[in-house]
C-alpha cells in the first residue's frame, strides 16, 4: 500500500466522520487536497463560484442532515471569502469543518504573496481554529477539530499550508475513535424539582420556544396541555413548534404577529425553551422567568432569570411534565387564543383588498401562492430582509417542511448558497430559494453552480428593485430612503442565458401557472416576480425613537401585512376552546 500524504489522511478523516462533500474553489495551495478528493470514493468536490457560497452551502447541509459538513478555500483571498458563511454556520449551530489552505510554511511571517493569518482571522466564528505546522500533528489535530464542531455544534477551522498537505503523513499515526453525534443532556433532579415548584406556584404560564425545541414537539404540546399555557415562538422556532399546535399565539420579535407579545407580558411565569431570542426589548422585565437550554452559556444572557436549567428541551420536559400538577383552568390560555385570532383578523382585513389584481404584484400574494403550491416536504431557504417577513408570515410549517435562513447572523445573499447545500442532500426533494433581488445579485454567479450540477433548485425572486428592509428601516427612523435602489433587472433572462429555466411574472394571473411550470421542470429554474416595493404599510403607532438598528424598544407589531394561513389556524384553535 502506497504511503499516504497529509492531504490524503485529511480526506480519509472527513470520510470517516461522515462528510459527503467538500465545497470550495480550487487553488494552488489547495491542490493536494483536491487531488486527494478526486481519488477518494465517498467524497465529492463541489466547485462553487465563490467561497462564501461554499461556507453557506456547507452550513445548510449540516442544518438539514445534522451531520458534519465541510468547505475549503485556498490561501489568502480564497479562505478569506469563507468567513461570512462560517459566521452564519457558527451562529446557527451547524457543525462545519472549514479547511483554510495556506502559503508555504517556510514563508509564513515574511510578507509572502497572498499571506494572511487564518489562525487569527477565524477565531470569532469557530470553536476550534488551529494550524497544522508539521505532519506529525496529523491526524490528532483534525480529529480534535471534528469533535469540536460536532460536540459544540459549530465551526472548526483547520489551516494547512500547501507544502505540508503534500508531505508524507507520519507512519503509525494514532487514530482515535471519532465522535459523530451529540448526546442528550438531562438536567439534575434538583433543577427539575425547582422548576416544577415554580410552575406549581404560578397562575399564568407562557411558553416561548426557539430552535432548541427541534424534536420536542410532542413533549411541548403535552406540557402545554397539562398546565394550560399559550405557546409563542421566535422565528427559528416556527418550523418546529407552530404546526399541529392548539396553543399557538404567534411570534414575537421584529417580525412578530398575533398575541405572542401579550402572552409573554401578561403571564406570571415565562418559560424560555431552547431559544436565544436576541431582542430583549420584546421580553418582559416584571415577570418570573425560567430558561431551559442545551448551551449553558446562553442561559440568562438576554433576560434576568429566576431559574436557569441546563438541559435538552425534550429530556427536560419528559422529566418535568409528570411532576407538575395538571390544571383545568383555561382562562388565561383562552384569553390569549382569542387575542391572537383577533389580532390576525385585523391584519388580514388591512391587507386583502383586491390583492389578486394589484400591479405591481403584492409580495404577500406571491408568498401565499408559493406556500399553497410548494411541496409538503419542501425545504425553503430564505434571504435576509423582506423575504424573512414573507417566510415568517406565510410559509406554513407541518413537521416535514424546513425553513432555514441567516436568522441569527443576518447576512444578505444566503438563500441561493444555502439552497445549493440543501439540494445536494436530496436531489428528489423540492428546494425553494426565496430570494430578494438584492440578495440574489450579490452571489448571482452561483446560478452557474445550479446549472453545472443540474441541481433542481427553484429560485423565486421577489424583485422590487430595492433593498426593501433597509428602505423600511430608514423610513421608520424618519430618514429619506437613500442608496437603496437596484437597477431593474430581468433575472429570468439571466437564468436562461446561463442555461437554466427562467420566467418573468409581472401580473398576478400569471403567477400560479409560472410557479407550477417551474416546479414541474426537472432542472434549475428562476421565477422572477416583479413585486410592489410599497406593499408594506407602517403602523401609525411606530415612531422613530422606537427603532434602533434592528431592535424595537416598544410595541409588538413592527410590520403590518398579511399572515397567510395562520389566520385560519388561529380561528380553528379558537373554535376548539371549550364552551361553558
Automatic annotation (TrEMBL):
Ligase as a keyword?
no
Residue ranges annotated for the Thiamine pyrophosphate enzyme central domain, each copy included? 192-320
Name any one GO molecular function: magnesium ion binding
> In its keyword annotation, does this UniProt entry include Nucleotide-binding?
no
For the Thiamine pyrophosphate enzyme N-terminal TPP-binding domain, which residue ranges apply? 5-115
Q: Which residues form the signal peptide?
A: none
Q: A Pfam family name for this chain?
A: TPP_enzyme_N
Q: Which InterPro entries match?
A: DHS-like_NAD/FAD-binding_dom, POXB-like, THDP-binding, Thiamin_PyroP_enz_cen_dom, Thiamin_PyroP_enz_TPP-bd_dom, TPP_enzyme_TPP-bd, TPP_POXB-like, TPP_PYR_POXB-like
Q: Which residues form the Thiamine pyrophosphate enzyme TPP-binding domain?
A: 383-529
Q: Which UniProt keywords apply?
A: Pyruvate, Thiamine pyrophosphate
Which top-level group of life is the source organism from? Bacteria
The record's similarity note reads: Belongs to the TPP enzyme family.
Name of the protein in its database record: Pyruvate dehydrogenase
Amino acid at each position: 500500500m502506497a504511503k499516504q500524504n497529509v492531504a490524503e489522511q485529511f480526506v480519509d478523516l472527513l470520510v470517516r466522520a461522515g462528510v459527503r462533500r467538500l465545497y470550495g474553489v480550487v487553488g494552488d495551495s489547495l491542490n493536494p487536497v483536491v487531488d486527494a478528493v478526486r481519488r477518494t470514493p465517498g467524497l465529492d468536490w463541489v466547485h462553487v463560484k465563490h467561497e462564501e457560497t461554499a461556507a453557506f452551502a456547507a452550513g445548510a447541509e449540516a442544518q438539514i442532515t445534522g451531520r458534519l459538513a465541510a468547505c475549503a478555500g485556498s490561501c489568502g483571498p480564497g479562505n478569506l471569502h469563507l468567513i461570512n458563511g462560517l459566521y452564519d454556520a457558527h451562529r446557527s449551530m451547524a457543525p462545519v469543518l472549514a479547511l483554510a489552505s495556506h502559503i508555504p510554511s517556510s514563508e509564513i511571517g515574511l510578507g509572502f504573496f497572498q499571506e494572511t493569518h487564518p489562525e487569527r482571522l477565524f477565531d470569532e466564528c469557530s470553536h476550534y481554529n488551529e494550524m497544522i505546522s508539521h505532519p506529525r500533528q496529523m491526524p490528532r489535530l483534525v480529529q480534535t477539530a471534528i469533535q469540536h464542531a460536532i460536540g459544540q455544534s459549530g465551526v472548526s477551522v483547520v489551516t494547512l499550508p500547501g507544502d505540508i498537505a503534500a508531505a508524507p503523513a507520519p507512519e503509525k499515526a494514532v487514530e482515535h475513535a471519532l465522535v459523530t453525534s451529540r448526546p442528550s443532556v438531562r438536567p439534575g433532579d434538583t433543577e427539575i424539582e425547582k422548576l416544577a415548584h415554580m410552575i406549581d406556584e404560578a397562575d399564568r404560564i407562557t411558553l416561548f420556544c426557539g430552535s432548541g425545541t427541534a424534536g420536542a414537539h410532542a413533549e411541548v404540546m403535552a406540557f402545554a396541555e397539562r398546565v394550560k399555557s399559550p405557546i409563542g415562538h421566535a422565528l427559528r422556532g416556527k418550523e418546529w413548534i407552530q404546526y399541529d399546535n392548539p396553543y399557538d399565539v404567534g411570534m414575537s420579535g421584529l417580525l412578530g404577529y398575533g398575541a405572542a407579545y401579550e402572552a409573554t407580558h401578561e403571564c406570571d411565569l415565562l418559560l424560555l425553551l431552547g431559544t436565544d431570542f436576541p431582542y430583549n426589548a420584546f421580553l418582559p422585565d416584571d415577570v418570573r422567568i425560567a430558561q431551559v437550554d442545551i448551551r449553558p452559556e446562553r442561559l440568562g444572557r438576554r433576560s434576568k432569570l429566576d431559574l436557569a436549567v441546563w438541559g435538552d428541551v425534550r429530556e427536560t420536559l419528559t422529566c418535568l411534565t409528570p411532576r407538575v400538577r395538571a390544571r383545568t383552568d383555561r382562562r388565561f390560555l383562552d384569553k390569549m387564543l382569542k387575542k391572537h385570532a383577533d389580532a390576525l383578523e385585523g391584519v388580514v382585513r388591512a391587507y386583502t383588498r383586491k390583492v389578486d389584481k394589484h400591479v405591481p404584484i403584492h409580495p404577500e400574494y406571491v408568498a401565499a401562492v408559493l406556500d399553497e403550491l410548494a411541496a409538503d416536504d419542501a425545504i425553503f431557504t430564505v434571504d435576509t430582509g423582506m423575504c424573512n417577513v414573507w417566510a415568517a408570515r406565510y410559509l406554513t410549517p407541518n413537521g416535514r417542511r424546513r425553513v432555514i435562513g441567516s436568522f441569527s447572523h443576518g447576512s444578505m445573499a444566503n438563500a441561493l448558497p444555502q439552497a445549493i447545500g440543501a439540494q445536494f442532500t436530496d436531489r428528489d426533494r423540492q428546494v425553494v430559494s426565496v430570494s430578494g433581488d438584492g440578495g440574489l445579485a450579490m452571489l448571482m454567479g452561483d446560478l452557474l453552480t445550479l446549472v453545472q450540477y443540474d441541481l433542481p433548485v427553484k429560485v423565486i425572486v421577489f424583485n422590487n428593485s430595492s433593498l426593501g428592509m433597509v428602505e423600511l428601516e430608514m423610513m421608520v427612523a424618519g430618514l429619506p430612503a437613500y442608496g437603496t435602489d437596484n437597477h431593474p433587472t430581468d433575472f429570468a433572462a439571466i437564468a436562461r442565458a446561463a442555461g437554466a429555466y427562467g420566467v418573468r411574472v409581472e401580473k398576478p394571473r400569471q403567477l400560479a401557472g409560472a410557479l407550477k411550470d417551474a416546479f414541474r421542470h426537472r432542472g434549475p429554474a428562476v421565477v422572477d416576480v416583479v413585486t410592489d416595493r410599497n406593499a408594506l404599510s407602517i403602523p401609525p403607532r411606530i415612531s422613530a425613537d422606537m427603532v434602533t438598528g434592528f431592535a424595537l424598544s416598544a410595541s409588538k407589531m413592527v410590520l403590518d401585512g398579511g399572515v397567510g394561513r395562520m389566520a385560519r389556524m388561529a380561528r380553528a384553535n379558537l373554535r376548539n376552546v371549550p364552551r361553558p
